[in-house]
Amino acid sequence: MPRHQLLALAVAQALFLPAAEAATITLTNNTETIADDGFCTLPEAIENANGDSQNGRTMSGECAAGSGPDTISLAGYSITLTTALPTVVESLNISGGGGSVQRSSAVICDFDAFPDAGEFRLLTASSGNLELSDITLQNGCADNPGVNASSGGAVSVYAGNLSLTGVTLSQNSAVYRGGAIHFTATGYSLTINSSSISNNTSNWQGGAIHTHGVAVTIDQSSLNYNGTSQNGGALAHFGGNTVLITNSELRNNRAPQSGGGALFVSASVVSLDSCTVHANSSGSGSGGGLFVSSGSLQLMNSTVSSNFAQAGGGGVFLNTSSASLIGSTFSQNTSSASGGGVRSGNVGGPLLVQNSQFNGNFANNYGGGLYASAPVTLDSSTFSHNRADGGAGVRTRDYAAVVQDSTFSFNTAVYDGGGLQSTADLSVTRSTFQSNTAGIRGGGVYATAELQLQDSTLAYNSALQAGGLFARGYVSKEVRDSSLIGNLCAENCQLYSHQGTLSIQRSLLIGGGCYSQNTTNSYNNLSTVNDCAGLATQVTAAALNLGALRDNGGATQSVMPGIGSIAIDAGGTGCAGTDQRGVARAFNGQCDVGAVEIDETAQTGVNFLVNAADDLGDSFCGSEPGECTLRDALFAADSESSASTISFSEAVFTGTQTLSLSQGQLEVLSEVSVEGPGSSVLIIDAAAASRHFGIDVSAGDPLISLSGLTLQNGSQGTAGGAIHTLESLQLDDVVLQGNTATRAAAIGAYLPIGGSFGLSNSRISNSHSSGGIYGAARIGGSSATVSVLNSVLSGNTASYGGSAQGGALMISASGASQINLQDSQFYANLMNGSGQKSGAGLAIFASEGSSVSLSGLLISENTAGGTGQGYGRGGGLWIDLEEGASLTLRDSTIDSNLAARDGGSFGVGGGLGIEAHQGNVQILSSTISGNRADDLGGGLFVDVQGDATVTLADSTVSGNHADDGGGALTTSSGSLEQVSVLRSTVVDNTAGNIGGGLRHIGLLGTLSLQGNALANNQSLGGVPHPDLSLVGNPLLQISDNLIGDYRGSGLDEAPIGSPDGSNNLVGSPDGAGVIDPRLEPLADNGGDTLTHRLIADSPLIDRHGNCSGLTDQLGRDRGIDGNLVADDDCDVGAVEFYPTIHRDGFEDGIIVKRFEQRSAMLSRAELSPRLKIPGQAKLVLRAGARDSSGLLLVHARRLGGRIELQLHRFEHGEWHEGAWAPLRGEQALLRW
């Protein structure tokens, strides 16, 4: 074969040889030794990777040979170096596995540019691509002489790409540039992902990173607490290419002598997206957060806050060919010069600010929010609460400025231009300047060049001169289709035009103060004062009927003419294509005067129909579907001189609708009735952003009515999380749930003198008061009428470190007020926190002859006190009566409440606590059961002073407990008071100390006990006073009682058959024995409350004759002969003995069926309203045969959320009683 053919074959074979595979070299040792010792160290691994060999180290366990772009695995080792690692000369991936490489801390990096032993950079790459992952590089020191040798304390790259993923670079230093990274390989790229770069320093540029001519990409990383003396506390980049930073944070970096506290970039394309730039500082330089010189910047969806620069640009300094700030927030930044938030410098490239916010920034000179010496466009942005000497919101100069769809509010300038100061041409459209202040001129706008103001609102700004607009200069000024309203000053408040010419058309000048030196083309303007003569036609404020400055749609707030306003269609023709909100002009062919065009046909009259199920209205109640929101309707009602009614379109509000409040609370400023479609149909959700209704009518004595609504998730920092009212208020079929406030989480009602409040058929639940003295609702007034009917207040909480009253409801009334609560439930409410907690369910404070009537109430499972040094008074109910106020409580149940104590004072009145001073208290036909107090009065605690009287009559006090005394009730009186317990049953109560039943503490005063059963009570202390314990020397009036155990009463034994002289039966364990009253357990025996029924042989039956014309707790006549012996037919205790078969009798409200039908359907909806008291059985159905041969009675009871039914059938002369069975589903078919 010829030689040239052999050569060709060899070449061809070589072309098809497989490429060398990359090697993975895994460390087995954390030292820096290089030796053939059977271990693999990091320096050895780098040498092998560089040479694609083992470098003569062949012992088993040594590092594998490199092969191409290798991977070194640290295997999680922590490696401390005393000398630099070998230089990387080929592509390499170092994977730390969570390990670290650090320079020994024994030698300090002293920044003297003379390397001491132990001062070295950790890693250098001279060629190839270097990838680092899941590794920490720490304490590197670049302190050699020369630019490159003194830069990059951790890593320096001279060629190739550098990639970091999951890397931590911390506490690295460089005497010159790049405390952690120095990368000047032009044309290559630096990529950083999910890494932390912190506490690195350099002595010149780039506290953490210095790059030149490199494409930089940083994502999901943090660059925090880095520093340099000159440019770029975290990153300094030069020499072109791009810098892209996303989803990252730059915090607390510093460059104290030059610029760019966090980032300095020159001559490059820069983009930051979704980043946080916070608390960085440039010291005496510019750009406390960012400094971008030449090139371009795009900053999007980011936050720049609390940065500082001694020179310009507290947050950002720009000197670029172009810049865009989009969707970003600039807040609390400071410049000792100009541009507190942003300063755009002198190159002249355009600046776009769009959908951004500048809040609370400060500049010592100009431009608290923004200083622009470049063409600038401000679009859909907000400037608020910024401060500066001049141009507190924005200062522009040298180049034209365009402002559109933006808001300037609450900015403050020491001198000129509270909102905006411009010394270059200025165009403002669809924007609002509100409540800005200037110390000298132009509270809203100060302009000294050509001006065009169109479709904009300047309202409530202030200055010494021209609170609204100050314009001067030998140029043209034009104001069109705008509203200048309520601006304040010493002179020329709305408008001042000096020099040049002014053209003004179709604008509102409201509040006075207009001056124009040279006006041309002025027409169809309106003013409310005559000092704008020549510029506007004077009209009355009533004729204008303007609304408040508010969100009426569009990008900015505006002032809208109300129904019938003279401004509507008064502008003629020629207006711009849209108004301030972007609504097309002109509606009906005629322009409206001012910034807002009405594009709807108004609903007229005093009644308005809501036809839109959202909160996106324009404050104008239109007649077409979708044109009138509830807020619009309220605004329309506000303009009416007589009471209005607001109803809801049945076509729109079908099924359950949720109206999400997006514009803050609904303002009620006139007498109105809001008639909702039903609380189950319309839910108004405030999303914890505001309360629902604020009610304050300036004149008259209006009654506000709300019905058929659910108000949920309201929130307020003061009182009234859902409703705050200064007027009379009636609520019917209103559900208030999940609302929060500092106090009065749902309702804060501060009634006018003689005002009224009503709550009926409503529910207040799951509200939380976080820091005030009231729980869910607070109602207060003088000479007021307060009523709560058929309503439920449950699951509310109040947490407060101090005295608080009324976990669910607190009522404070004076001046002969009338308070009436009826057929309502207060359950599972809680008051906790330190201090005194009064009435977790209900607290009432009444004085000056006020009257309190409570009937048909269920007060159950409430807790007052017991945590954080808190102590409760009245776990369920607390009543405080002063100055002749009176209370009547009847037909009510107070059950399973707790007055707890965790330190502090006393926990008293587990169920009910009363303080009465010169008042009259009556508790009638009620049951107080299962309550507990950590100290006194497990069921009831009464403190009577100042000639007051307290009567407990025909009531049951059972199963209560007090840890100290008075398990059933504790009464305390002074010298003139009278406490009476009449015809009541006080049994089965316990006390941890003395007085298991009644404990009375009275120095003098009168204690009257007539016709009561006090028995089966226990005192568990060392001295047994089980049924009656007397402390002091009260005047006693005791007759016709049964006292089971005489101990502690001061009475002598009087056994059955031998009553004492006052007809009392008194038992004794030492004599004939303790007397058992022979009672059935507490149960439903008819009526509204649970009672103890007398057993047929009870010694309480037919004991005396002092009950003529009276009824028992169940409302039945007393004096029924129970033992077939004439005379003395009155029974002792709360319940008269009736020998009946069925406990319920035939009370009202039952369902009647024919017995012959043999079946009936009962639904949960029918039963639930009848079952008010948990565990109490109610007769719900009766079926009788025509010939009286058959009778069916159906009972029902509620146990939590479960309903159970029981059948009693009489047929063929016999009664049959069925077992209790649960109601499953929504209805049940009964058969008999």
UniProtKB/TrEMBL annotation:
<protein>
    <recommendedName>
        <fullName>CSLREA domain-containing protein</fullName>
    </recommendedName>
</protein>
<feature type="signal peptide">
    <location>
        <begin position="1"/>
        <end position="22"/>
    </location>
</feature>
<dbReference type="InterPro" id="IPR059226">
    <property type="entry name" value="Choice_anch_Q_dom"/>
</dbReference>
<dbReference type="InterPro" id="IPR011050">
    <property type="entry name" value="Pectin_lyase_fold/virulence"/>
</dbReference>
<keyword id="KW-0732">Signal</keyword>
<dbReference type="InterPro" id="IPR006626">
    <property type="entry name" value="PbH1"/>
</dbReference>
<dbReference type="InterPro" id="IPR012332">
    <property type="entry name" value="Autotransporter_pectin_lyase_C"/>
</dbReference>
